[in-house]
Amino acid sequence: PGGRFYFIEHVAAPPDTSLRLWQDRLTPVWRGLSGGCRLNRETWTSLEAAGFGKLRYDYFRMQDFPGILSPHIIGIATKLP
């Protein structure tokens, strides 16, 4: 109880964008080359489903990263008693 999980993670681009389309197309090859990493993973859905008492995260694009890797989230998940 009260433990915190700090995270920063590259994630899927917003749906219906050209970047997301490319992430979806490249994910099968990318997974094989990167040990299972998925370009189009919606990590926030797993965090929301994990049952943390408090979850806060922000979406942003990481500067100087290749386009398909630029979408990120950063945040804190707290386990409440």
Description:
This protein is an alpha+beta fold. It has one domain. The chain has helices at 18-33, 43-49, and strands at 4-10, 54-61, 71-78. It has a 3-stranded antiparallel beta sheet, with helices on one face. The protein is elongated and about 40 Å long.
Pick out its properties.
single chain, 81 residues, alpha+beta, three-stranded antiparallel β-sheet, 2 helices
**DSSP helical segment count:** 2
User: How far apart are the termini?
Assistant: 5 Å
Helix content: 25-40%
- Rg, please? 14 Å
- Categorize the overall geometry: elongated
Low-confidence stretches: none
Strand order of the largest sheet: 1-3-2
Helix/strand/pairing class, anyone? alpha+beta
Fraction of residues in β-strands: 25-35%
* Mean pLDDT across every amino acid position: 94
Whole-number total of structural domains: 1
SSE order, one letter for each helix or strand: EHHEE
Main beta sheet strand tally, sense and closure: 3 strands, antiparallel
Task: Give a count of the beta strands, DSSP E runs of length 2 or more.
Answer: 3
